[in-house]
Each structure stands twice: as structure tokens, then as C-alpha cells.
Design brief:
two-stranded antiparallel ribbon; 71 residues; 23% strand; 41% helix; 3 helices; alpha+beta; two-stranded parallel ribbon
């Protein structure tokens, strides 16, 4: 995998927004459990930007739907 960052703050979310990662996940299926939780939702967003197909799980259906809609 390769990372190329162009700036950002110390926040991991902001760093991820400024980094071009090639994790080799295009068209791969990624399962994200507790996907509505902040850290895992950010991970799901990163996987989606990488072109992965996502399978999301969460305990609360409303939070899961909101996460899926945002992606």
C-alpha cells in the first residue's frame, strides 16, 4: 500500500481526507462492524473512497441507515 499526504491537522479524519491512499481495495468487499460508531464510520468512509464494496453492521437500524446514506 502507498500513502501520499498533502497536509491537514492532527485529527485522524482530517489527515485521511488529505491523504491519497492506495490500499488495493478497489472492488474488494470490506465488512465494517459497529459501522455507526465514529471511528468505524470514518474507516468505512476511507474504504468507500478507496473503491471498496462495503457490508455495514450496527445495532441501531436508524444509525446504520444514516451511515449508509452518507456513504
Amino acid at each position: 500500500s502507498t500513502w501520499r499526504c498533502t497536509g491537514g491537522s492532527s485529527s485522524s479524519r482530517r489527515v485521511a481526507e488529505h491523504c491519497n491512499m492506495d490500499l488495493g481495495l478497489r472492488d474488494r468487499i470490506v465488512l465494517v462492524t459497529a459501522a455507526s460508531a465514529a471511528v468505524r464510520r470514518a474507516a468505512a468512509e476511507t474504504f468507500a473512497r478507496e473503491g471498496a464494496k462495503l457490508a455495514l453492521c450496527a445495532r441501531r437500524a436508524d444509525a446504520l441507515e444514516a451511515t449508509a446514506a452518507a456513504l
